[in-house]
Amino acid sequence: MPSATDVIQVRELVKVIENPPARVEILKGITFSVPRGQFLAVMGASGSGKSTLLGLLAGLDTVTSGSIVLDGTEISNMKEDRLARLRGQKIGFVFQSYQLVPTLTAEENILLPAELIGRNGDSRERARDLLDRVGLSNRGNHYPVQPSGGEQQRVALARAFITRPPILMADEPTGNLDSANGQHVLDLLLELNGEAETTLLLVTHDRKLAEYAGRIITLHDGTILSDELVRRTVEVS
Amino acid sequence: MFFRTASKIAWRDLHASPAKFLFVVVAVAIGVAALSGVKGFGYAFKGMLLKNAKQLIAADVQAQTWNDVTPEELAALQHLAQKDGSMTRVTETISMAASANQRVPLMVSVKAVDPRVYPFYGTLTLSPAQPLCDLLKSDSDAVVSPELLMRFKVPVGGTIRLGGQDFHITGKLITEPDRLASGFGPGMRVLMTRAGLDRTGLIQYGSRAAQRFLFKLNPNVNLDQMRAQLKAILPRVFISDYREGSPAVGRAIDNTTTFLSLISLIALIVGALGVAMAMYSHLQQRMDTIATMKAVGARASQIMQIYLIQTLWLGIAGGIVGVSVGALVQKSFPWLIQRVFAFLPAVPWDWSFSLQGMSLGVLATLLFTVPPLLGVRNVRPSLVFRRNMADAALEDRKHWIDKLPSAGGALLILAGFSGIAVWLSGSWRMGGYFIAGLAASILLLALVAAGLLLLMRVAVKILQRKLPAVFRHGFANLYRPGNQAKSVLVALGVGVMFTLSTYLLQRTVLQQVLSEGPGREGNLFLLDIRNSSGVTNLVESQPGVTGKVELVGYIVARMAAKNGVPVERLHFQNIRSDQLQTIRITTAAGLPGSLAIKRGHWWKPDATEPQLAISEQSQRAFHMRLGDQITFRLAGRTITAPVVAIFAREERAPVRYDLVFPRYALNGLPVVYYGAVHVEPSKIPQVEEAVFDRFPTVTVMDLADVLRRIQEAVDQVALVVRFLAGFAILAGIIILSSSVAGTRYRRIREVAILKTLGATRRRITSIFSIEFSILGATAGLVGGILANLFTRIVADRFIDAAFDFDWRALLVVVVATALLANLAGWLASARILDRRPLEVLRGE
Fold this sequence. Notes:
The complex is a heterodimer. By secondary structure, chain A is α/β, with parallel strands linked by helices.
């Protein structure tokens, strides 16, 4: 049952891709809600619909039917520009392949979401602070092609937190990294998330990674196979 | 607030791929250079005309006529001049001339002046640098242009023969201020005294000579009053004063400027089309950045801001380069026309035209980047989840509402360029026609290109099993997402169409002159014949003359009245009153073969009573009907003749008949004849010499010489059009390269997969070559067919020439364009084949 403390509410969510004569139902009427501050992992095999779900929750794609309420705002029929503004204000993103803007330096990349929503007050100080927190204070003026994959993902992490969003969405954040770098990024993600008390939505196919979460939803062929609350078995290293 | 970040991203993005954007700058610059150079020069030149107006007519006010004036009129003019200033008379005509070293006569322009007073304003540049009256001391002295000395192989101090008289060359005429004032400006020049001209007998009734009466006025004389008094004495002559800045030259400059401006606009449009394609390809390559920015909260308008700023800078950069080159063009114009104008004042730099040129460049660039920029709206942020973003295309959405902004963008482009065309041509009508014609051509090309691509797709489907695999792959590549096959076809097609049309038209014009022009009856023209039987007998007795001389007589008359009403009281649309002064009446005995009677009856061949047959064109121009009584004044006589026949004429006919009298009705009047005869080419010089010796006032023109002159004129126009067409082709090549570069990632991966599956380099090379060849050959085919159609329409409608579809030229164009496309495609695909498959597949 959805409650007033739920920051994400999803009801009967359906996503169909029609490419006549083909018609693929990717999500087949999913319903769930996420309370504020929860760390939710969405798992599933390739093609189960987890990335599509993440995209719909962030308003990156349009729903076929159903509703999504983000922090009290219904987004399923929202215009693209309002969605963009909402994303800037309420969602931080971490992608598998970092997705940094190649023509901006690390510090400028971190600042970008704040500039897009016109929040410039203490953003520069906060960007530098975040750079420091992810251990890249000496890399602020470097362009994305220069640092390693792990460093790029740490810049992306800092970018996700710049506007202090209430929701953080991460799509396979360690998928492109070796284990050491992956662990480092994960530790930072959990640390920053813990401090900001952000609701964290992590999409992964890695069971070990999912077990860091307080709740795991497993998708199979566009439906929820299981939705389980878990005790943390792995401590942050 | 986002502006700074947007500018930062835009700037760094430009830095990341300078070569790509260099094309954009060059594309804009060429159009802007052409526009600002042409416009700026036109304006500066007109300014110069006004500033030096007194020099251009060498007087304060002038009266110009193609008829001789009566002694009473001359006396009145002299009286007026004594009262208000001074007057001098300048007569100009053309004639044949020869020298001891150049026995075959050549045509020259003859100008007779009073060397004591001419010119009233401006200076003659002479060598030796002496006053003109010192060089033209006697009636047998002449000052000539340096070109004449060279062509006649005669030095200063030598002699030339002209109108049966010898003239002693006393100096070189380097420049003269009023050279363009009469219309006899081009060609070799001979300056002599009035008495000298009278010696030659060149000026007789009906001769083609311009008479100019130049006035230098006392300071207190009112120019308008003077004009009114002149008009009262010579009511039907053309009067102008220095304030008009040589109106004929001014009009010519206006027309030329408009024509060149519109051609420059084509360059700008093709350049802007290239810019649009380059921006499209650029945005295609920036899809990941655009999707990422949208994912982290950027609105479409914020992203558009980045690329709009970028486009603006590119437009401005192109504008600055263009304006600088345009300034050089503007500066070089005076050098090009220095032979014609005596004075070469520095053409002033006009910033307003540079600014206008630059604004047009920026506007054109912005207008054409609207559609690709609108595509930014359609980039879905969910692309960030896709691993191969380069696969996604910057395509329109399917719903018609989503297509509205794109349709609006297209309308904006059309409206913007229509506005520019109207502004450049200074006419709503001309601007409208220009844009409609251009838009129709591009649309037609786009439709044909799309149709051909579709046809190929269907053909491949049907022939799938029978086609070798490399061909199937090559064909399929044309439809890959992001492949700009249609745009490449349109751009290359436009270029090919322009180039081939120019060539075909040029050839058609020359062929027409050769096969159907006035040379049909002969290859030697004889003009200004007065003694028709003498000239005919002489020419026909010459060796090498293989036919009879065909003669047509004419007389210059003044139309005085229609049905007893003086023409001054009648209003004829499109005919100026001074044109009624020099109406050419042709004579004929029987009905000429090129005419067909529409109404009325032709006279008997031996008819002697005055009667008039008129062309349908003249009937419309003069509002004449059968039975109208038309009164003419000619050679001091007044003749009234009824209109007895109205005829249609063949436009291709060698003789242009308008108003025709029976041949024997004008007996005793000074009829002038012209004609043509066929002479073996090697014997033409002897015939020219013989005619010159016996009849020095007859002008003889060799067809080969006429053709050479036409060829020169056509070549000059063709050169300009070819230059612009070359640019359109260059734009097509760059678009093709950009299009190939835009699908580079996909190609790299494809090559890796094909290599992994065992494809050899040769096989992959074949696949790509087939793709490029099809694109090039199709563009060549479409452009070639359209060029043939276009030439056919122009030949039929405008130059009335026969034109057959040129299959050979089409074949050459198809092969050449295919080769060109391969060159461009492979330049953009360089190093794709060198990548190791594992490196690429791991990179995925």
